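Technical appendix A lists one of the benchmark inputs used to test multi-chain prediction within the project. The record comprises six sequence entries:
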Amino acid sequence: MSDQNLRGFDLWGAPFDGEASLGWPGSRYAPAKVREAARWINMRIQDGRIFRLETNQIETVGDNLLVDRGDIQVAHADTETTFNRVSEAVAGSIRNKRVPIVIGGDDSLLFPVVRGVHEALPGRIGIIHFDAHLDLMDESDAQGRLSQSSGMRRSLELDRIQAADCIQVCERHFNFPSSGQFKFDHGLAHISARQVLKQGVDATLEQVFKQVEGADHLYLSFDIDAIDPAFAPGAGAHEPGGITSAWGLEFVERLAPYCSAMAITEVNPLMDVKDMTSTLAAYLAFTFAVAGSKAAAPGPRR
Amino acid sequence: MSDQNLRGFDLWGAPFDGEASLGWPGSRYAPAKVREAARWINMRIQDGRIFRLETNQIETVGDNLLVDRGDIQVAHADTETTFNRVSEAVAGSIRNKRVPIVIGGDDSLLFPVVRGVHEALPGRIGIIHFDAHLDLMDESDAQGRLSQSSGMRRSLELDRIQAADCIQVCERHFNFPSSGQFKFDHGLAHISARQVLKQGVDATLEQVFKQVEGADHLYLSFDIDAIDPAFAPGAGAHEPGGITSAWGLEFVERLAPYCSAMAITEVNPLMDVKDMTSTLAAYLAFTFAVAGSKAAAPGPRR
Amino acid sequence: MSDQNLRGFDLWGAPFDGEASLGWPGSRYAPAKVREAARWINMRIQDGRIFRLETNQIETVGDNLLVDRGDIQVAHADTETTFNRVSEAVAGSIRNKRVPIVIGGDDSLLFPVVRGVHEALPGRIGIIHFDAHLDLMDESDAQGRLSQSSGMRRSLELDRIQAADCIQVCERHFNFPSSGQFKFDHGLAHISARQVLKQGVDATLEQVFKQVEGADHLYLSFDIDAIDPAFAPGAGAHEPGGITSAWGLEFVERLAPYCSAMAITEVNPLMDVKDMTSTLAAYLAFTFAVAGSKAAAPGPRR
Amino acid sequence: MSDQNLRGFDLWGAPFDGEASLGWPGSRYAPAKVREAARWINMRIQDGRIFRLETNQIETVGDNLLVDRGDIQVAHADTETTFNRVSEAVAGSIRNKRVPIVIGGDDSLLFPVVRGVHEALPGRIGIIHFDAHLDLMDESDAQGRLSQSSGMRRSLELDRIQAADCIQVCERHFNFPSSGQFKFDHGLAHISARQVLKQGVDATLEQVFKQVEGADHLYLSFDIDAIDPAFAPGAGAHEPGGITSAWGLEFVERLAPYCSAMAITEVNPLMDVKDMTSTLAAYLAFTFAVAGSKAAAPGPRR
Amino acid sequence: MSDQNLRGFDLWGAPFDGEASLGWPGSRYAPAKVREAARWINMRIQDGRIFRLETNQIETVGDNLLVDRGDIQVAHADTETTFNRVSEAVAGSIRNKRVPIVIGGDDSLLFPVVRGVHEALPGRIGIIHFDAHLDLMDESDAQGRLSQSSGMRRSLELDRIQAADCIQVCERHFNFPSSGQFKFDHGLAHISARQVLKQGVDATLEQVFKQVEGADHLYLSFDIDAIDPAFAPGAGAHEPGGITSAWGLEFVERLAPYCSAMAITEVNPLMDVKDMTSTLAAYLAFTFAVAGSKAAAPGPRR
Amino acid sequence: MSDQNLRGFDLWGAPFDGEASLGWPGSRYAPAKVREAARWINMRIQDGRIFRLETNQIETVGDNLLVDRGDIQVAHADTETTFNRVSEAVAGSIRNKRVPIVIGGDDSLLFPVVRGVHEALPGRIGIIHFDAHLDLMDESDAQGRLSQSSGMRRSLELDRIQAADCIQVCERHFNFPSSGQFKFDHGLAHISARQVLKQGVDATLEQVFKQVEGADHLYLSFDIDAIDPAFAPGAGAHEPGGITSAWGLEFVERLAPYCSAMAITEVNPLMDVKDMTSTLAAYLAFTFAVAGSKAAAPGPRR
């Protein structure tokens, strides 16, 4: 494959945790920490090539694989303006034929990121949502309509995003009956973390691809708490029973060619153990870029 | 199933670590920390129903599923009196047709909890003992007869508790030859953590059910160090090679319907990483209650 | 098997992190911490016997299984002299018919340890190299020729050590194309952490034994970062996607009978969580000794 | 002095850190932590009396000294509504003839607390402002008008609050020339931490009382970073050169009789060392209540 | 002064925290940690001499200044036997013409240590008691009669120990009225931490010497929480407003020549920040030995 | 004073801890951490002016006050080359009429920094050496001649540096008699931390100025452990009894006008509590620059 066919990636920081109304605040510090680690990995590229131990191959990724676009400006106490800027950044990258990777920030960013994708790309947009939680709350006094608990709900209100093109992965434990009812009513599927752990990466990916095969474009939303707190203690909450970092990396790698955008959210340096989670997030982002540099079309024949 | 057939659960704190003579002290602080997290999960119940992501079902659990009974009073420097109170609390709950869940405290509590079960219930009592250690020491100068190292030994001295109805799960590494000899002599079986990790949850449960099929009632004793320190750093000791939190939760869930009581011991907030282990313990307790609300009889035909 | 056929082990501390030019310094404190834990496990031996929960057997290991030889003297700012002393210590143990276990220190020690083996034993020496990294850098301004990044490279320059008799296990993520090219040119194989996680311990060991079957003697080099930072946070770097501590222990146990020396490197108490990693390292060392007390010859018919 | 002449105190939590736009977030967790410690101290009162080691006297404080009024409800993403509720709570306590102690929350709360005082009490209101920072920013894109950097500025815009009746204590280090100019223009005085450390508690208090002698009522605003991070690591920022906890306690004790309200802000449990700072904050609050139970009129003849 | 006139010191560990019923447990680990640091300082002695920077002198201390006598055996769950052994160790050292320094353990040890002094020495025994707390509780259900809260109370029941020969230093904050009444009734004096901080080391020592001038022998009991948690975070509780480590060291140094025994209690490695407090305790012990090697008689003319 | 008379400062990082043979390694990470904080303070300058709360004045410092010159390249395992580069950097700044501020790195850097001053400036060079330790070791097997324990010793071997022009401040506790003897023999004076704490900043500075009045140029060497570990936990060792951060800042501020260079060493982010010490170091550096921008000639009439 020649260089000109390779996709390039934009790394955007979104240092916003103003909607972390349930989880621990602190994800505002993630972009700086992740960026530091990501730069360090980035330099392994020499002459547009990199050696991958998982594939035992020297792969061509181009010289411009992952470009740091800096932080998106947060508007003080104004979630809507902040979200608008996030959507613009995402849409801008896509219109420039590049793939945006947004480092949050809390998981309320799920919505403005997918909205940016929705603005820049035509057709049906599917969401692959890795998370310990459903993020399906409609609205509440304590959290409003745009919080970290409502990202998926808001996204499903966009024109060309429907539950049938989305899937949630790694959700676990208990929730309100009303959230369950919403899922049943809208046909929104999930694969629980337990199911993922039982069936493995291959079977899970097959299920994911099957679910989203009607989508024209895919967005990968990765809340770090999809991964177990043992591997990712620097998160917005500690939900035991998650997947390993190894599987998180493999999921991201194998989904990357099919995705037009990615966000990594809820990485929380204030809760981290020696930056272990920021380092993991940097690997997730960089892996997404390397593996996603050779795009593949979403659809039934993957 | 109608509500009146559902079992209710009593949450008892036993803030006693006076017999933590080998491991780190500090489990005295576990009840307060676990209770805090457990309350928060508890509120997910609405109108006696809860949505479980693992089953993808809205389940009926009743409105009175898990009642906090507060802390059992520790008698100063008097293990026997303390143990008597623990046994009474446990027996009292059972006599009230409720299922006690005791949050230790150190693992010496294994004995008074099972003694309470033994007092309140007739027939053969079996123990399913998750732990990294055997707890089979008879007596020593440094630890006496009632320490965290002797709980299983003391329990086997009760009238209707015999090794043939018990099984130890997740024990690992090395021990004194004399402890091994005791196991051989009494026919006390264990499934090492390595074996559990190799064969998985299903095969392990089959082995467990087979072993305890002669018991009329079962008690589940869960020392948090059955789980690997990566997932449960807030423990009485760090024994590498344990199971994941995901499996710990699944074991508890699937054993719950068959068990008449449970204790979670050795959760140590002084050693914890951001309350990760207290949160896990709360999930273990709550999962036991939700899954155990529909009782199943122990015995060979499970 | 009679006692006189059992191998004895020497525990050497090498408190040297002067070549930790890329990773975090602090492994100089590992010998003291690991020794403390190892002594405690060591006392489980009674009358030359120990009970192992993984085998459910009381095993004869002799009364002299693991002897603490103290710390090797580090020469100030003089890596070569330090390395000479390490090689001498290792060679000395082997000449005394004992098996050296070296607790580093940083992973530059890979080289002087294998050089000691090479000096004391004839024939082809194979290296089984557990590590997240390749350690194949030739030389750089910032790190010189003897750093923690060059251990494997230097080792392959010894007369009777050839890539065909070596294998790297658990390496992962990205590297410079030039390092990949070196591997291709010399036929140095690795099994990535992901591959290990997919295929399991048995298949991996088969692959390892196959690779090193031409070696007359084997050296096991274990950089603690082969294990995931969730299980071994006290390391020189945090590389997500590693193996569990359970598997680390099993690998060491099953390789031990075939190995003439072992080093455990990059355990870093300054980065550790409550000495979790030092405890793991002590178990790795002690497990190597117990399991390795009954030697087996390396070669194709294992 | 008879009991009926003693003042009673209301403890309000204000778990709001939505305006912590410059400092670390996390003060939302302070009320719960401080409350826990404060309750424990509170129980030392027996029969309306308490023994104070500093005075070596058994003092009468009444049976109703410090009443926990719970947390003020935070309005999601709506600082103004939140502030209104804070002002109402404060004004309500004062109208009930009680003295409010507000546990923040971030230091933006300075403004709504003093506004509550201003609403409930007539005449000139003076502010004694302990803080490492000036909080005099007018407005900025990044922080808006109501942030933790603007509390003093906003307060000075209230009708009956003028710089001449206020004093800032423990401010230190560097600031923008424009902030200095504002102070010069409005005659807002401060005593730097260095000056406090040099001249001691007595001379500082004399200076404070002199400055505020024209005020009819006084409000004590205590940002925990007035105290050095060595003593109060759980803060919104680490500004070296602060006062000791001992002096903090003495200042509060001696100012208490003259003050009609107090707030303690920027206690941040996420940054704390073993809850050291929450414990200190509880002592500050309780000391304020005990010492302030016997009111003294503010004015020139103190 | 010739060597034979110099006093020698015995360092005893008392790893007992079984009466830490109110404070955090963990002081059982202090002897090991303090010993490690103390050994390191001890080696500064060359040819019986040491250089002190505070005096700018090379001082003769003899070659046998501080001898590690190991740990006193704790009797499991048997405070009285443990206390008997502590008293014996202390009395034994004194009878051997050496000065015992006991490293606790919790502060219940105050009593058995002074009892050992009382057994070995004739006449009136005075106690200089540095502590944040009074330790005057008579008895309670939750704590019994021998807990860390009763040490001073029990000591005052010994024949030749009377309140008039004792003084408490650094106590602070609030207490039960009944404890105050006990002090008034028995004439037990204290100098609060605030008073110490105000008047300085010289004035405080003068007050101390004045109070204890009728004693024939003095015992120095040093609960580490006399020092502020900023300097000694590894304690049994965090009581703000304590003295600095510098003053703690100076008090110990200047009292040493007059004292026949010392205990340092409540050093808690589980709560410490990087062993900061264990290091301080080692300096307190070693300073006591160096400064106390030249004895001075207690009495009015000091 | 017009701008052109103001001195400018160069901030150099020296990320070298290869001679931290006794203290904890990790000061290699200090320059990055300190730089981050220093930049943030630096931006408070507007139009060449800054407001200082300690002086309550808007001061002119110029627009080019503190220029980050980046990190000095460390030569792998080659202390001499590294030192040469440090000396060159320092000398270069001075020759450019700027004042170098070096952020270590370990305290072995004392020597190459003063050597750079010595190379660039004529006449007698005096050293004001803030440190808990003497750094007077000549040479040892374990540490060589250039370690963090020998910096002052090596410096005194330079032509125009004599003990009579130097003074050590804040040294404390015990040392080898031989080190004391060296001080006596060479007339090297110190003011112990205790003496500093007793006499205060003014008297200490008077003593310092008196001692160094014969020097033509002064170098300020500031090992962070001069400050107590309560205020500066991120150090190379924890020596209780140090000065406060407030006094550290004041000493630096008042010495700055007379000094031609400064180094801050042994700041250790690996040991720090939430970057508290790096923040302090940044304030020390920035304070040195602001206060030193108006130079004063060293000599007797200060």
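Chains B and D do not touch (no CB pair under 8 Å). Residues 3-292 of chain B form a domain with the Arginase; Chain A fold (CATH 3.40.800.10). Comparable benchmark entries are summarised in Table A2.
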